[in-house]
Fold this protein.
Amino acid sequence: MSLLFNKAVTFLLHWLVIGALSPALFGVIARVKAFFAGKKGPSLLQPYFDLAKLFRKKCVYSSTTTWIFRASPVVSLAVMLILSLMVPFGRFRAPVQFPGDILLVAYLLALGRFFMILAALDTGSSFEGMGASREAFFSCLSELALFMNFITLSLLSESLSLSRMIGADIPMSWKGLDPVLLLVVGSFFIVLLAENCRIPVDDPDTHLELTMIHEVMILDHSGVDLGYLLYASAMKLFLFFAILVSIIIPVRTGHPAVDTGIFLGGVLAMAVLVGIVESIMARLRLNRVRLLLLIAFALAFFSLIVTLWRN
Amino acid sequence: MEKIFRGPWTVPFGECSLRLDPLNLVFLAAIVVLVLSSAIYGTGYLRPYRGKKPLGIHAFFYLVFMAAEKPAVRQAGFIYLIASHCATFFLFLMFFLMAHAAGSMDFDVMARTDFPQAVAALAFLLALAGFGVKAGFLPTHIWLPYAHPAAPAHISALLSGIAIKMGIYGICRVLWIVKTLPGWCGYTLLALGIVSGLMGVLYALGQHELKRLLAYHSIENIGIIAVGLGVGLLGRSHQVPFLAVLGFGGALLHVVNHALFKGLLFLGAGSVIHRTHSGEMDHLGGLAKTMPWTAGFFLAGALSICGLPLFNGFVSEFLIYFGLFTGLRELPPEGVVACSLGILSLALMGALALACFSKVYGIVFLGKPRTDIKTDGTPEGTPFSMLLPMAILAALCLWIGLVPQSVTGLIFGGGTYLAHTDAFAVRLGTVLGPLATVVRMALLFLALILGLVLLRRLFLGTKPLPVRETWSCGFVAVSSRIQYTSASFARMIVELMKNILLFRRRGGQVTGVFPGKAHMKSSVHDASEEMIFRPGLALSNEISKKLGHSRIRYTQLYLMYILLFLVFLLIWKLK
């Protein structure tokens, strides 16, 4: 009984952390971009206000849509909530870890994507069809890079579980300033930018350009549904940051407060980094995006070659 | 777990016995379920044809190729016939070889024989050639996209769900009989699976016709099964029993799963064609509104075939992935490379299948109708006898996805049987534990969805929500024709792969300041058909024509040849 209670408490703690902190990342990125543009920028709490506003609004639906359109925000958010139980937050181990959980992580992401693509096609709009087609294409390439990274990490840690792959064994590898991990980090960062629809792959700030992907797919969502989607994408960003931070600074000092501080600082630094990338880079031309994703794949591929060479 | 029924009579070269063992049990399970569902479906599907067709000696052919008056259908039947004859040729060679080495035609005797390595390798290659044609491995798959769409929907379901699995069964049986396979056999099977899987799904993406697309997807799934068998064989030849059981077990589960979800998808496609009289995806659209039940079941099939969690496809792919990741640790370096390639191609197949089925579902069932679809105006329009089998298959897909423990006994029984290992020697808990956790997470996921739906209702209240048109960015002259089509949805992927897919595009260029009407036609052609078989057949045609010219045209001469041959035989025998 107490075991079950403990489990429930850890689940809730993880949900609390990600639920409370993830929207702030958008605020940080917006502030960094404003700083580079020489502006003051919105408050860090702006995403929270936006969410609160959306949750108070009603939805408007197109007469073309079916229940798929209404289901997709729910599925997206539920996927992120499940994933947040399988990703370690720094020293807080993932409440759910088992050999093979990376497969569940990857395929749950795919499930969310499947429903987003269907919802976009559900509107019957050619704009959204365009976004859906691109999402389907680019996700093929980013999934390839993601699994390539999984293979390398699995070989390094001799494990099949995300928490073991990016947890305790990583510090040993970093001591030799491992080129493998540098390559993995580089590759994963590109995957992160692509999966979260950030510049240079996608521009989250433009709604009506012919080059965007994710934003056009949610063009018809409104009110609570849009709130769910926004919240889900904030959580997705947080989760990817959490994985990357766990690879880069796998610090275990033993002091809970210090470790938590280091983890949250890392996530914050990631948000700043993404903000800087968005400020100093333009979005790539659409046919260049696939090159970028293939670069991510190539980096991961080299890391595998180095790993195999050493073994 | 073996039951043998021996007949009281004998057949030439042996005795008649039927046998139930853990391997064919898996296949029988799939057959029973799918045949029953298809039979129920057929009563509804064939109703419009009732009384129109003569039944009798041609009944079978009418059932298989009902529209035999169409040249395309006759051609499909002919290609199928040729392909299965070619396959049989290799199989005869293989069985003669094995029977010669074992000294008996009985499988039990063969299984007790230790074949020399060379014989084992040759038998394996012949099995791949013979059963590979039947299973639809690349590049000998070309009969499949012709034959499967030509049959009525429930027969297509059987052809895709069961008939090609008999090729897989044959390969499994040979793997079971021949224990002394050399190490490269596993790699060959893995490579064959990777190529078939990737090319199958890429060709599927380029198709515009619903049933043809599903037929190409069968090639992809056969590829996944072959990857699983390859992993199992690698495990067996490197003495890693756990790996062998995982690979074989995953492959067998995928056999069952594919029968269920591909059957479901073909039945769904049949309902669409039954109602709209068109399988061209670019003519359809918005069917989820008019056929909600069919749409729902088809979605279940699509989620299963993409290997997404909650449904059965994920379980079998999980097992195969698990095997491949285990192989990374347990196998020598060349095995690690092979397993890495296997993981990557499974991931790519998954992503491409997702693109393909979001295309199918999105284009056919969502959005607006692209042409004036003639329906009779009733809400669902699909008779209950067609909905029931779909419901059964969809429920089974979900059942295996949520309660995989109910089938693990069956498939790991088959896996250990194929791996020639003791069930107790393999620590199956290493994979059953994670599988149980996956299921718990799936249930939690469903609970979360329920919670979020309730929360949404709390936010929105119960008042009906406003319904407007899709926002088209201020453009008012929207027509349903400007929606994305199946070709435009897949264009980016197909164009990236245009060199191996033989992507052809004609027209589509507009000229002048005020361009008039323009036409565009794009299609994807099968490379192995256009580059290997067509030139090859043309060559053999030419050779036989040349031989035909030098033929002797007098019957008397032929009679004389026969006489001479008989005399020769007589002398040879008397000597």
Notes: Chain A touches chain B through 76 residues (CB under 8 Å).
